[in-house]
Design a protein that fits this description.
The chain is about 40% helix and about 15% strand. The strands form 4 sheets. A 7-stranded parallel beta sheet has the order 3-2-1-4-5-6-11, with helices on both faces. It is globular and about 55 Å long. The protein starts with 10 loop residues before the first strand and ends in a 10-residue tail after the last helix.
């Protein structure tokens, strides 16, 4: 039976609905009684949405007519879509900066009273690390230049949870007796479970936009050391007595250079020299000044509970073997 969506409920226009965070956000918004309209290249087929009454606008971020149809009559626009790997800087900028500007301009013209929430990335805080980070920072600037206080930018740190394949490798590595720890032991990384992130997004939509750039994390915004993260991942997969060893830099550099070669040949890879700089950056923690002001938001997932949901999904879908090591 479809989730109830009152005819007078707020209409939320959403890009990036088919992505990892978007799939969870659609359901969160619908559960709260919002009407949800999504932009998509193809008809959405998602078991998690089988009881959600969606409005679907076929098209892409480069389709001006589709953007107009997406935002017209919307009470809020949530921009989740973005490019996370590309063969060059121009590709990143075309999507993460220029398409963001186009969506903001469509909102300004066809939904002048709508709140605009851009879900960016904490990487935008360090735009010199990579073309991706620079393009996310440029996209933030584009949205704020067009919409000013009508827009809010949210920078999540690393997001994990059921449905995410980008963080799967850390759980796979955590299954071994020897768990290799990358980076500087003093480096810190903030995290957030996808369930908490979509809750924070929905809460922000219920507040007044301020033209601010803010961030959100779990209950430990100061972040975690790499060994803490991998130890929690090991416990989640049932590896209770791992040996931790610091990973030498050269295997990561070699893998990154292979990724660089793939980009030059037209096959973008997630790991390349720029992404390695992001991965090994010393400080992905959040300061108090960066954190979103949302009196309603209270993270539900610590690492143990959050990693548990991720591992359960990986095992259900066959990405991880179902076993317990003592």
């Amino acid at each position: 039976m479809p989730l109830p969506q009152a005819e007078v409920g707020p209409l939320i226009a959403l890009t990036g609905a088919s992505g990892f965070v978007g799939r969870h956000l659609v359901r969160e918004l619908a559960t709260r009684g919002n009407r949800v309209r999504i932009l998509t290249r193809r008809d959405p087929v998602n078991q998690a949405w089988r009881d959600v009454d969606l409005e679907v606008v076929p098209g892409t971020l480069g389709d001006v007519a589709a953007l107009r149809e997406l935002v017209t009559g919307a009470d809020a626009v949530v921009h989740l879509a973005g490019l996370i790997k590309a063969v060059n800087t121009a590709q990143f900028m075309a999507v993460n900066r220029d398409a963001t500007r186009a969506l903001a301009q469509a909102t300004q013209r066809y939904a002048p009273h709508a709140q605009f929430l851009q879900v960016s990335s904490l990487a935008a805080r360090e735009p010199t690390l990579s073309a991706y980070a620079a393009s996310k920072a440029a996209g933030e600037q584009a949205a704020l230049e067009v919409l000013g206080r009508q827009a809010t930018v949210l920078r999540p740190p690393a997001v994990y949870g059921p449905g995410d394949l980008e963080t799967l490798i850390f759980f796979q590595l955590a299954e071994y007796r020897t768990v290799w720890v990358p980076g500087n032991p003093a480096a810190r990384m903030a995290l957030i479970h996808v369930g908490d992130l979509v809750t924070a997004i929905a809460d922000l939509l219920a507040s007044t936009p301020t033209g601010a750039i803010c961030a959100v994390a779990d209950a430990q915004p100061a972040g975690y050391r790499w060994q803490e993260i991998l130890a929690a991942a090991a416990r989640a997969v049932g590896n209770h007595n791992p040996r931790f060893r610091r990973l030498p830099r050269w295997p990561l550099v070699l893998a990154a250079r292979c990724g660089d070669l793939g980009r030059r040949l037209g096959y973008p890879k997630m790991l390349n020299t720029e992404k390695l700089r992001e991965l090994l950056h010393q400080d992905w923690s959040l300061s108090a000044a960066e954190q979103a002001e949302s009196p309603k938001f209270s993270p539900r997932y610590d690492l143990a509970a959050g990693f548990g949901t991720a591992v359960a999904w990986y095992r259900q879908t066959g990405w991880l073997a179902d076993r317990d090591r003592s």
